[in-house]
Amino acid sequence: MDLDLNILRQDLAGKFIGHPFHYYPEIGSTNDEAFRLGLQGAAEGTAIFADSQNTGKGRMQRVWHSPAGVNIYTSVILRPSFDAARAPQISLAAGVAAAEMMDFYFPNQIHLKWPNDILIGGKKVCGILTQMKTSGSGIDFVVVGIGINVNSRYDQFPEDIRDIATSLSIVSGRTMAREELIIHLYENMAKWYRELAKSGFGAIREKWLSLSPMIGHRVSVGFGVETISGKAVGLGEDGSLMLCTAENGIIKVLAGDATILKRG
Ligand code: BTN
User: Fold this and answer.
1) pLDDT for position 166
2) CA 45 to CA 67: how far, in whole Å?
3) Looking at residue 264, what is its pLDDT?
4) Ligand 1 pocket, CB under 6 A
5) How far apart are the first and last CA of the chain?
6) Phi, psi of 86 (to 5 degrees)
7) Measured between alpha carbons, how far is 79 from 46 in angstroms, rounded to an integer?
8) pLDDT value at position 225?
9) Count of Cβ atoms closer than 10 Å to residue 231 Cβ
10) How far is the centre of ligand 1, averaged over its atoms, from the C-alpha of 55 (Å)?
11) Which residues have CB under 8 Å from 42's CB, separation 6+?
């Protein structure tokens, strides 16, 4: 379904996130383009949107499969005035914003998996890749890249991820208008980012925890060849996953891929 740029431009005019709005029918990666624009001084709230990506980037050097005309591939430039150590909070706030947007259309079906995967029916429907340019201990700018599988068909996913990824239309059985989702996403991002800047991480952490089934369960977190297992007991102020491990008590995990091992 073609994207109606007039609807988007009209609605986004004057908004905090999405104005200016740069649209590309095809691009390497919206994150790379946002980073380039960030270096040139692009304003906070600038959004980049592509209809397809040739070299879409995922976390941990993975590829983000980005077929044309069906999904959301967007990156937003933010210029927070706080310390670089707080950057993971921005990423988690974006996860909350995207999950809350999808929860509106799929009530009680959306779950967050640390750090920032969004799942529906246990399968990944959205991923977030945050990159930043620091200046001293501060942040020059942050690029928050969000990929949402909106209308991808089952056969459009590469075979190796067909059973672990899904799209909103596979779940709902209907094609969804990307314009409405994008506008809703940017509004939520503005809301949670302002909350973070004004009042700190507390409300974001609370919302994140309410949307995540991980806490209280045994999880394993893999990073390269290493795996740590323990009971997930909380989300640290630095965005870390707090695990209670048999060997070392409570530890903070800062990066990796988490899997829930069992319920209970
Ligand atoms: C993940 O691995 O879960 C993160 C995926 C992030 C994908 C999005 S799509 C828009 C933006 N541009 C990119 O190249 N990556 C992010």
Assistant:
1) 98
2) 25
3) 45
4) 29-31, 53, 56-59, 62, 64, 73-75, 117, 127-129, 145-147
5) 43
6) -90, 0
7) 10
8) 86
9) 18
10) 10
11) 20, 34, 77, 141
pLDDT of res. 263: 56
Could you give the residue ranges of the DSSP H alpha helices within the chain? 5-12, 30-39, 87-105, 168-172, 178-199, 202-210
Centre of ligand 1 from the C-alpha of residue 234, in Å: 25
214-257 pLDDT, tens per residue?
999 999 999 888 899 999 999 999 999 999 999 999 999 998 98
- Cα of 75 to ligand 1 centre, how many Å? 8
Residue 223: per-residue pLDDT:
86
Nearest residue (CA) to ligand 1, atom 11: 145
Can you tell me the distance from the alpha carbon of 228 to that of 149, in angstroms, rounded to the nearest whole number?
29
- Reading the block at residue 124, the tokens are 């990944």
Please identify every stretch of the chain with a pLDDT value under 70, giving residue numbers as ranges.
262-264
Q: Residue written as tokens 């909106």?
A: 150
Residue 236 is encoded by which pair of tokens? 């640290």
